[in-house]
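Deliverable D4.2, example record:
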Amino acid sequence: PIQEAVKEFTMTAKRFEFTPSTITVNKGDKVKITITSMDTTHGFSLPDFNINERLEPNKPVTVEFVAGKAGTFTFRCNIICGSGHSSMSGTLIVK
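Output generated by the structure prediction step:
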C-alpha cells in the first residue's frame, strides 16, 4: 500500500496570532500540526475538519486530520483571549 504523505507543521499561538498563519497542503494529505501557546490559554478551531482544541500555555497540542476536501478554510482561536481575540485566525489552503 502507498503510504500517504504526512505534512507536519509546528505552530505557535500567542496574543493575537498564529504563526505560521497560513498552511498549504494537498488534498488527501494527512496533516499533523503541533501547536504551542506562548502566553495564555488559546483555542484552535478548524470546524470544517471537526477540530476543536484547547491550548494551555507551554503545553504542545497535536492535531491530526486528513485534508479530504479542497478549498480555503479558516482556523481561529475559540477561547476569548483578550481584546484582539476576534482577529486571531489563520488559513488552511488545500489544493
